[in-house]
């Protein structure tokens, strides 16, 4: 039986970063992956496919140019599912190639198969051909991620009634679609398909969506979606989903309302992939959504030497944060000190339009009783925005009136997920409103919105009294 210093189960962002970190510290590392190719949900069904799909949809439809040339403008008439898939396959091949290269360069061993615990120090791996292998591990990282939640009352058929994994396999673009669930994944796909001219209806049981985002940003976003005829139904639960013999879907809501569509995307939650790990063998258990509890500083579970990181530990469930969690877990597992991550990390929602945010929302600032001022800039106020033909997009910053420090930055619109990093740097370096007022920004850029929003707040806050 081969013995390893560190065994990682799962090759998604958390597992990949952890394995490479431990290998760089000179440890003997093994990554076990049940999928045919490395990369995890992030590469094969989540982050990268959805973002590639988005990019292809925006390019082929000419979405970014419509502010200039009008809503009827199209780069390619009749975009097909095949058009979308072509770019997807090329991107995924490239991602897998880069990852395989990273593993081999860092001498990380790999095994393909499904892993489960025999005991605290031993794992059993069932390979695809049925062969069973055992390996010994001084420390183990569970980076098994999640899979779509599939309730038994939804008649998934992989064609017309699908989950967010199956959406990548569709052979025709639907003319109409009901999206059940207005979480990040549901909203991203709903808005991407709406950009592809699919008539989209979103059904969400809660009265609001994206509750963790600044309310003013969500209001602006919601307005933009409704303005382009997306139907957003809040506060309503789905009673039944059915498909008739012609393939048409009917979604009946609890209030009796009936929605017809060619496709139904069920995107209401994900479940941790912990059910096959035989966790009881090591005295560990997952919650009712398959999630594992960890110490938030080290990502160690209640069992010493067993770590968990990434989506399997819950919020924020991002590829970006999963990587950092994996790195911290690996360092702790092999006895290397790990720096605490900065207080604020960015959250990106790649809807159309994008949303990105870092730090406190206005609602959180109010709850904490901090006296504050906001600065707002609309992209249409920037010269870059004029050149790009942008008629929407806004950037909002919140500053403490007491310390003048930036407390939060919130953006909706083109480039939001890139732009947010300027705000993130100022936040984590504890910068004040003066940073934006006193510094020069490239011109013409969308980043100029920082200057405009900074000045907007500064004008109301008054000048800094310097000695
Ligand atoms: C549609 C969608 C869009 C997303 N968009 C973004 C985005 O834009 N930005 C962002 O930051 N995040 C995004 N995410 C989230 C991101 O994909 C996840 O946060 C990330 O993939 C989690 O990484 P992970 O390392 O926890 O595991 P995963 O990427 O989930 O990988 C887990 C791996 O473990 C393997 N595995 C599971 N059980 C076993 C076992 N018993 N034995 C062996 N192998 C096993 C699985 O096969 C899988 O390959 C998106 C997710 C989805 C679904």
Describe the protein's architecture and organization:
This protein has 467 residues and is an alpha/beta fold. The strands form 5 sheets. Strands 1, 2, 3, 4, 5, 6 and 17 form a 7-stranded mixed β-sheet that branches. It folds into 3 domains: 2-148 and 271-333, 3-Layer(bba) Sandwich (FAD/NAD(P)-binding domain), CATH 3.50.50; 161-268, 3-Layer(bba) Sandwich (FAD/NAD(P)-binding domain); 347-461, FAD/NAD-linked reductase, C-terminal dimerisation domain (Enolase-like, domain 1, 2-Layer Sandwich). Helices cover 31% and strands 24% of the residues. The chain is globular. The chain has helices at 13-24, 40-44, 47-61, 66-69, 81-105, 184-195, 215-227, 319-333, 362-367, 383-388, 416-428, 433-438, 448-461, and strands spanning 2-9, 29-33, 109-112, 114-119, 122-126, 132-142, 146-148, 161-162, 176-180, 199-204, 231-234, 238-243, 249-253, 258-261, 263-266, 270-272, 306-308, 347-349, 355-359, 372-378, 394-400, 406-412. Flavin-adenine dinucleotide (FAD) is lined by residues 9-15, 32-35, 40-42, 46-47, 50-51, 114-115, 143-146, 164, 185, 273, 276-277, 310-312, 317-320, 322, 348, 350. Residues 9-15, 32-35, 40-42, 46-47, 50-51, 114-115, 143-146, 164, 185, 273, 276-277, 310-312, 317-320, 322, 348, 350 line the site of flavin-adenine dinucleotide.
């Amino acid at each position: 039986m081969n013995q390893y210093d560190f065994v990682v189960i799962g090759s998604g962002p958390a597992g990949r970063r952890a394995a490479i970190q431990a290998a760089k510290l000179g440890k003997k590392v093994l990554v076990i992956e049940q999928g045919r190719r490395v990369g995890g949900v992030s590469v094969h069904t989540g982050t990268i496919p959805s973002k590639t799909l988005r990019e292809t949809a925006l390019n082929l439809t000419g979405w970014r140019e419509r502010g200039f040339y009008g809503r009827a403008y199209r780069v390619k008439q009749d975009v097909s599912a095949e058009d979308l898939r072509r770019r997807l396959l090329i991107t995924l091949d490239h991602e897998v190639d880069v990852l395989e290269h990273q593993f081999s360069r860092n001498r990380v061993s790999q095994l393909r198969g499904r892993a489960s615990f025999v005991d605290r120090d031993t794992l059993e791996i069932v390979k695809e051909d049925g062969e069973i292998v055992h390996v010994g591990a001084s420390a183990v990282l569970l980076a098994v991620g999640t899979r779509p939640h599939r309730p038994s009352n939804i008649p998934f058929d992989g064609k017309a009634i699908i989950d967010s994994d199956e959406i990548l396999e569709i052979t025709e673009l639907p003319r109409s679609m009901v999206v059940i669930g207005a979480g990040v994944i549901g909203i991203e796909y709903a808005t991407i398909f709406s950009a592809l001219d699919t008539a989209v209806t979103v059904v969400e049981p809660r009265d609001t969506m994206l509750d963790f985002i600044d309310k003013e940003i969500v209001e602006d976003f919601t307005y933009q979606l409704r303005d382009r005829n997306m139907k957003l139904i809040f506060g309503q639960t789905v009673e039944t989903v059915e498909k008739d013999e012609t393939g048409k879907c009917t979604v009946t809501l609890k209030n009796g309302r009936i929605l017809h569509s060619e496709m139904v995307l069920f995107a209401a939650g994900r479940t941790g992939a912990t059910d096959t790990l035989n966790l009881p063998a090591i005295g560990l258990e997952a919650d009712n959504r398959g999630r594992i509890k960890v110490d938030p500083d080290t990502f160690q579970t209640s069992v010493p030497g067993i770590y968990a990181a990434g989506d399997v530990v819950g919020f924020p469930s991002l590829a970006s944060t999963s990587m950092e969690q994996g790195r911290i877990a690996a360092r702790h597992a092999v006895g290397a000190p790990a720096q605490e991550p900065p207080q604020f990390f960015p959250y990106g929602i790649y809807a159309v339009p994008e949303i990105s945010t870092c730090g406190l929302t206005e609602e959180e600032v109010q709850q904490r009783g901090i006296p504050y001022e906001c600065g707002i800039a609309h992209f249409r106020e920037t010269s870059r925005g004029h050149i790009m033909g942008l008629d929407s997009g806004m950037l909002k910053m919140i500053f403490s009136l007491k310390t003048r420090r930036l407390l939060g930055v919130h953006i909706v619109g083109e480039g939001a997920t890139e732009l947010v990093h300027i705000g993130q740097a100022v936040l984590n370096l504890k910068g004040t409103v003066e940073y934006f007022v006193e510094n020069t920004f490239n011109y013409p850029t969308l980043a100029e919105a920082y200057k405009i929003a900074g000045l907007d707040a500064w004008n109301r806050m008054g000048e800094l009294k310097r000695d």
